[in-house]
Amino acid sequence: MALTNDRADSELAVGTIPAPRAGRWVDHYDPEDTVQWQSTGRRAAKRNLGLSIFAEFLGFSVWQLWTIVTPSLNKAGFALTADQMFWLIAVPNLVGATLRFPYTFAVPKFGGRNWTIVSALLLVVPCVGLAIVVQNPQTPFWLMVLIAATAGVGGGNFASSMANISFFYPEREKGAALGLNAAGGNLGVAVVQLVIPVIVVIGGGLALERAGLVVIPLAILAAVLAWRYMDNLSTAKADLAGYAAAIRNKHTWIISFLYIGTFGSFIGYAGVFPTLISTQFPQAVFDWGFIGLPAVPLTLAFLGALVGSLARPSGGKLADKLSGANVSVAAYLVMALGALGVILSLKAGTFAGFFISFLLLFVATGVGNGSVYRMIPAIFRAGIDPSDTATMVLAKRKAAACIGIAAGIGAYGGFIIPRVFATSLKEAGSLQPALVGFIAFYLVCAAVTVAVYKVGRAQRFAGAQI
Predict the structure, then answer these.
(1) What ranges do the domains of the chain cover?
(2) Given phi > 0 = left and psi -120 to 50 = alpha, else beta, which region is 345?
(3) Tens digit of pLDDT at every position of the chain (466 positions)
(4) Rounded distance between C-alpha atoms, residue 301 and residue 276, angstroms
(5) Is the pTM here over 0.85, yes or no?
(6) Would you say the CATH fold of 239-466 matches that of 15-238?
(7) CA dist 432 to 115, 260, 336, 363, Å?
(8) What residues pair up with 233 in beta bridges, in sequence order?
(9) Whole-Å CA distances, 307 to 101, 287, 372, 412
(10) Residues pairing with 287 in the sheet
């Protein structure tokens, strides 16, 4: 009888989806188990995905808060130079890109639910800091940079969120789930650039501190919802061997380089777009015409991040039909055309051309984000016999690690682009040298993609289509 009771107690100690053990730990979870997936797994995965998207959305929003606050600081009494403004935009991206690496391993270490709670509450710190410093024009610039740097915690959320959701979904549905998760986060950039300019001027005047204050209750809500409804998976383990294998593979670094060109451009342009509008067209007014209401062009900045976010899923779908390499090459060429359009529009002094050219750039970056990510699994399984199970498993592990590494390295573009623009303005008094440099970079990215994945050994080997 005692043995029976001991066995019952042991079984009760194992957390299941319907009855997780203390701390909402689930020990028995296998998304590849069709029976479990259809009965309880799918619902649990969707619940965790929805809350993960919300938390990551807020993370991206906080990460990009300074991009929309900075252009208005001088109106609030500050006396910042263009170089200083670009530093405030660039530093959160530098920190956020760097934090993506440790954040990737936080989920296996602490649990997806637990880390979502912590990472959501960490967003309160940069919001409170921003709300304090923007109210005092005498704030030392070094302190403003330090506070802006704390916003980088929002950029790290992407890595932990993607890692967490990858453990919940079976291979056949993982791509769609991760695509939704990524798109939900990217949309945070567009929403913050749409909503914050309105919130800070409600009631008249300019109350920049509201930009930080409005996010605080939402971050706390995300933490509470994660605490109440998300789960920790005991099966979520860090694949250190997979990361080590990916680091030794040259394609991890080639893809990371290419991802700087796509996601790095997206997050970099999203960060500088409001400031570029306010500095290059300070007196311009956009006429909505049919509703008879004019709008300062700054209020249109959100459209760049919006179209870039919405274009990302289409990049993956096009890559499925036309190959990731083909779509990526096309995306880089369109990005080069967009940058050329910006140069010509600046010379002509036309806001409409400037704005449309940037929208073209954003769409191309979104498509490229999806297509470059789509290339990764194809690259690592190229030339492998599908019946060789052990080798295929290792290929999947290396591909998953490559995705995480590329996500971190690509995000450094968010630091590089503002600093290149700042240097261009300081040294040449114009954005043109920076844009010419970006065009050259996109052409190099296109050439590398063709050389390595179209006519190179990876493409010829076993007839793989990358």
Answers:
(1) 15-238, 239-466
(2) alpha
(3) 444 444 344 445 678 888 898 999 999 999 989 999 999 999 999 999 999 999 999 999 999 999 999 988 998 999 999 999 999 999 999 999 999 999 988 999 999 999 999 999 999 999 999 999 999 999 999 999 999 999 999 999 988 998 899 889 987 887 778 878 888 888 888 899 888 888 988 877 789 999 999 999 999 999 999 999 999 999 888 888 889 999 999 999 999 999 999 999 999 999 999 999 888 887 665 544 433 334 445 568 899 999 998 898 888 889 888 989 999 999 999 999 999 999 999 999 998 899 999 999 999 999 999 899 889 888 888 878 778 888 888 888 888 889 889 999 999 999 999 999 999 999 999 999 999 999 999 999 999 999 999 886 555 555 566 8
(4) 10
(5) yes
(6) yes
(7) 43, 20, 13, 21
(8) 26
(9) 27, 21, 18, 21
(10) 294
- Which run of H or of E encompasses 251? helix 250-259
Q: Look at residue 2 and give its three-state secondary structure.
A: helix
In CATH, which of 1.10.760.10, 1.10.3290.10, 3.40.50.1240, 1.20.1250.20 is domain 15-238?
Answer: 1.20.1250.20
| Beta carbons within 10 angstroms of residue 349's beta carbon | 11
CA nearest to 154, candidates 240, 65, 51, 76: 65
139 alpha-carbon distance from chain centroid: 30
Q: Which fold has domain 239-466?
A: Growth Hormone; Chain: A; (1.20.1250)
The answer to whether 85 and 429 have CB atoms below 8 angstroms apart is no
- For the chain, the distance separating the N- and C-terminal CA atoms, rounded to the nearest angstrom, is 61
The number of beta carbons lying within 10 Å of the beta carbon of residue 179 is 18
Place of tokens 């777009």: 273
How many Å apart are CA 147 and CA 157, to the nearest integer? 18
How many angstroms separate the Cα of 386 from the Cα of each of 244, 376, 377, 396? 23, 17, 13, 12
